[in-house]
Amino acid sequence: MILLGGGLADWVGMADWMALAGQVGRQRPVVIVPTGGPFVDTVREAEDMWRLQPGVVRRMTLLAMDSFALMLHGIHPEIATALNASEMRVNASAGRASVWLPSSLAAARPDLIEDWDATSDSLAAWLAVDVKAERLILVKAGACPCHGPGNPFASGGPDTTAMVRDGLLGPDFPAWRRRFQGAVWCVERERVEEVAAALERGNGLGCPLAATPWRSTDQGTGQGMT
Predict the structure, then answer these.
(1) Which of 20, 21, 67, 205 is the most buried (most CB within 10 A)?
(2) Bridge partners of 88?
(3) What is the pTM of this model?
(4) What residues does each domain of the chain span?
(5) Sequence-separated (6 or more) residues with CB below 8 Å from residue 87
(6) How many CB atoms are located within 10 Å of the residue 4 CB?
(7) Which residues on neighbouring strands pair with residue 184, listed in sequence order?
(8) Contact, 190 vs 143, CB < 8 A?
């Protein structure tokens, strides 16, 4: 599963990530999770101007993510859209990667939408849990912690709670990371060739994000949701 960050929307190299997803999708299931990209900026502007209710903003954000997903499909039509896990499996059986249309959650999981903290990172982690993905790759426009100074591997990987504090991940992400049994990797957008080579070899890649322990102060939608 691959999350393409909003910072890739106006970057020509995003087509390389789409090509990689399409290529890998011919051999095994691949799902792309879209962010809101530039489309969600309009949602934020409307929220600020009209003081919209959170539930309305969440549904508008999901539609913005759908727009990003449809743009990705338009860039690489070989990659099919999918509303849910069933459609993802149908696409995979035909040797096609999928790009998820998150607005389907408004009807399928209204409970999730009511409590969700409106970040694509958290939704990607939720979907990875739901479909029992093998790995989740977060493709970011900025630097991942492992690629900076220091030794983030001292405790098995960067602290996702610290990454939330630094604005690198959504606030719900650590709780969903704890639920996800697969590997999670943060990858800078320029490293598409390294990722392709690692997937070909079956090796690890990027910056591994370890699950952090539960704390009594944990808040958010991840805690207590099934």
Answers:
(1) 21
(2) none
(3) 0.88
(4) 2-208
(5) 80, 81, 98
(6) 29
(7) 136
(8) no
Question: Whole-angstrom Cα distance, residue 126 to residue 139?
Answer: 17
- The pLDDT of residue 119 is 87
d(Cα 192, Cα 53) in Å, to the nearest integer? 39
Distance from C-alpha of 167 to C-alpha of 6, rounded to nearest angstrom: 14
- CA dist., res. 91 & res. 31, Å (int): 10
Contact 43, 64 (CB under 8 A): yes
In this prediction, residue 157 carries a pLDDT of: 66
CATH number corresponding to 2-208:
3.40.1160.10
Q: Which residues pair with 218 in a beta bridge?
A: none
Average pLDDT of the residues of the chain: 87
CA atoms of 70 and 49, how far apart (whole Å)? 27
Strands 135-140 and 2-4: parallel
Q: Report CA 186 to chain centroid distance, whole Å.
A: 10
Of 164, 67, 62, 64, nearest to 113 by C-alpha is 62
The residue among 3, 68, 17, 14 whose CA lies nearest residue 41 is 68
Q: What is the mean pLDDT of residues 91-120?
A: 91
Cβ–Cβ < 8 Å for 26, 199: no
